[in-house]
Amino acid sequence: MNPFNYQGPVVPSRLIDRRNEVDALQRAAADGVAIRLAAPRRFGKTSVLDAHVASMRAVGHRAVRVDLSKVGTVADVAARVAEAFTALPTDPRRSVRRWEARLGVTAKLAGVQLSVAPSAARPPVDEARTALLELLDVPLGLHQADAGLTVVCLDEFQDLLVADDSLDGLVRSVIQHHGGAAAYVFAGSQPSLMRALFSDRERPFYGQARPLDLPVLPVDEAARDVEALMVADGLRTDGAVDELLAFTGGHPQRTVLLAHHLYNLLDDPNPPGEPAVVAIDLGLAETSDAHQAVWDSLGRVERVVVVALADGQAPTGSRVARDHRVARSTLQDALERLLDDERHVQRDRERRPFLLDPLLGEWLRRR
Ligand SMILES: Nc1ncnc2c1ncn2[C@@H]1O[C@H](COP(=O)(O)OP(=O)(O)O)[C@@H](O)[C@H]1O
Ligand SMILES: [Mg+2]
To answer: Which one of 175, 257, 300, 366 is at 20 to 30 Å from 60 when CA atoms are compared?
Structure first.
């Protein structure tokens, strides 16, 4: 079995590095400090939350992850909370049990398999808000019964605002009374939205959570962990793993995606001469539709900027300006737009802009 899963979150035992982050989460929970974890999609937020949940459970706390991705209505939000909280012991107020059926959450096989009804069958907004208020308070009820701590990780927290622009206020109004009863982690994919939720004075969560970064994986540790998994299955890598990491720069999902292909190539009785190169070709073939969609979504000057970044040129320098007959200030504006958007371009530690996705960069170079 190929040990490199690049599609869903990885199980805690398969987590590459992230020891510091998991330790920081554990310490914050012990100190009762809320954390916000903001990073681009596919940087391993959910995987880190699952590792945090596992490590907190291992030391005897209750811990759950609530998946708020793509919630559309308040009832969806309440249902997601109920779904996650079915993993907790029965609360004294029986809130989870009471709301489960009403929200269309059915626990089958003692909570192993869950199905959530489509939103259409869900209760009206007022009732859904009542459900959410009661459900969010479950950790407090549990704490009053046994003095224990519940760790609650709210994954893709910013999607809450899609359901209702004021839900952050509702959530905050309940959980502000949970000191000692619950420790919260708010994770989100759209860094700017997460920042707006926590850094805008007007918003209820302003200044309410300590930020924790989830940068790209450290290249050396990631190479060692990937190498170890290959070697454990008897594969000879001959430097191919280092080549892959040099290419991905530690981008978490891209590293694992390419490691997955490399594993299959090396597992073949007749591996190709340059397996890392072939793995990159396979990764590109698999993701090219997504790169095309990114390209199609960009305006002309943004395209000039991303191509310059892929080619290793200064995207707002005089050379690019001259070659494309664009004013440097126009290039600068386009770069700022891309940086604000945060999905494709970010700044590195030295504040230099770079393309987040190494495969997008390669696709652009081969265009
Ligand atoms: N620390 C890690 N160790 C191993 N794989 C990782 C790690 N971080 C991310 N990944 C890879 O990235 C993919 C996406 O991870 P996920 O946790 O779902 O990210 P996010 O929640 O940020 O979108 C996983 O399928 C896995 O292949
Ligand atoms: Mg996720």
So the answer is: 175
